[in-house]
Design brief:
Blueprint lengths: L1 E6 L10 H17 L3 E8 L8 E4 L18 E8 L3 E4 L7 E6 L7 E6 L14 H13 L6 E6 L10 H10 L17 E5 L3 E8 L17 E8 H4 L14
Parallel strand pairs: 1-2, 7-8
Antiparallel strand pairs: 1-11, 2-4, 3-4, 5-6, 6-7, 8-9, 10-11
Length: about 250
């Protein structure tokens, strides 16, 4: 099974801006051409309709940038999960920044949890929460998940090598990885997107950095790389994970 993880930086459609229209279509085309069995998408737009996929969305986010267009179907959601088989959404304590779905007919995988450890509270007059508060929420959310057949993917807004996020990285390691959650992206210094999974799953990762914006955002589709997660049953061949530095862009 292949799962795509990607923060798509809320591409917009029907805004009347050709550049934005082109990026929206190119992001959609990329996802269709990648042909993953499922996707965990962050900074998602409800207007993206992937043919042949079922979709669930986290609650609409109240944290919106004044530079974005949210008219029509362009509602902004921290998380979307798409899957080629039916999804069953489950309740979570934080439905804006987390989305939990049961998946059908995918062997060792029983559920997907997509999340964002948001930093957007700092720009809101209606919230007093800090990044540390949001990290605690998501650590608690992951700890509450069943310990078998679960994959977590999201934007944690931290990576190894960020001095200001060293404590956050340590907390994920001590409170999740040390408690049995496998963390294949733990040592990566090139993305804030992370993958955690229960121990009965074997994971291979490939990462496409060519989708990232170039200088002045003149090229590229997002400020984040695309991560493809290949899953197999760990009991069939032993636990392993491999992260390649890059792959050729999907064409």
């Amino acid at each position: 099974m292949k799962i795509g993880l990607w923060n798509i930086d809320h591409p917009e459609t029907a805004s009347g801006v050709l550049r934005k229209e082109r990026r929206f279509q190119e992001v959609t085309d990329y996802l269709m051409q990648a042909a993953c069995d499922a996707y965990i998408i962050t900074e998602a737009n409800a207007a993206i309709d992937l043919s042949g996929y079922f979709c669930e969305l986290s609650d609409e986010s109240p944290f919106k940038s004044s530079s974005r267009f949210y008219g029509g179907a362009n509602s902004y959601h921290q998380v979307a999960i798409y899957c080629q088989t039916p999804l069953e959404r489950s309740d979570v304590d934080e439905p804006i920044n987390g989305l939990l779905c049961k998946v059908a007919d995918h062997g060792c995988l029983e559920q997907l949890y997509g999340n964002v450890v948001t930093i957007k509270d700092q720009w809101s007059k209606t919230s007093s929460k800090t990044y540390s508060d949001r990290l605690s929420e998501q650590i608690d959310a992951v700890r509450s998940l069943i310990s078998e057949g679960t994959l977590v993917g999201g934007d944690f807004n931290l990576r190894l090598g960020w001095p200001q996020k060293r404590l956050a990285h340590s907390r994920v390691k001590e409170e999740l990885a040390a408690k049995g959650w496998a963390w294949p992206t733990e040592t990566r210094e090139d993305t804030v997107q992370h993958v955690l999974h229960s121990p009965g799953i074997a994971v291979d990762l490939t990462i496409d950095f060519d989708v990232k914006y170039g200088a002045n955002k003149a090229t590229g589709l997002s400020d984040h790389p695309f991560i493809e997660i290949s899953l197999t049953d760990a009991t069939a061949g032993g636990m392993h994970w491999v992260a390649s530095e890059a792959v050729e862009p999907v064409s």
